[in-house]
Amino acid sequence: MKSSKLTFLDKKIIKLLQDQGVIKSEALKILSCEVYEFDHKERSQILEESKHFGKNYQEAAILKHIEIKRENYILSLLDQANYIVAGRNINDLFN
């Protein structure tokens, strides 16, 4: 994964991992595995959605799944770091 293609939340995930003592190259690998790689169940779900809504929907489905995984992963990192996140939007945490 190239650093130039990272989203705002990707950069925050890397920062949280670095705060835990992970070096940047390892943080990028973790991000790739935790957010951008799909397991069999996720791939099947995307394919089912594509069949139902059409091939043009597949890209949107992939992006939707990545966003959900990204948000879930950052919330788990924040929870590990004992951040208080109840009742707040994920983007509010970094503004």
H/E element sequence: HHHH
Major beta sheet summary: none
The DSSP helix count reads 4
Gyration radius from CA atoms, angstroms? 15 Å
Decide which structural class fits the backbone: mainly alpha
Question: How many beta-strand segments?
Answer: 0
User: What's the overall average pLDDT, rounded?
Assistant: 86
Measured by DSSP, the beta-strand proportion falls in under 5%
Q: Which ranges are low-confidence, i.e. pLDDT below 50, for 5 or more consecutive residues? A: none
Explained architecture:
With 95 residues, this protein is mainly alpha-helical. It is 65% helix and 0% strand. The chain has helices at residues 8-19, 24-36, 40-53, 58-80. Helix 1 packs across helix 2 and helix 1 packs parallel to helix 4. It is elongated and about 45 Å long.
Short description:
The chain has four helices and no strands. The protein is mainly alpha-helical and 95 residues long.
Provide tags for this entry:
95 residues, mainly alpha, elongated, 4 helices
Outline the fold blueprint.
Blueprint: H1 8-19, H2 24-36, H3 40-53, H4 58-80
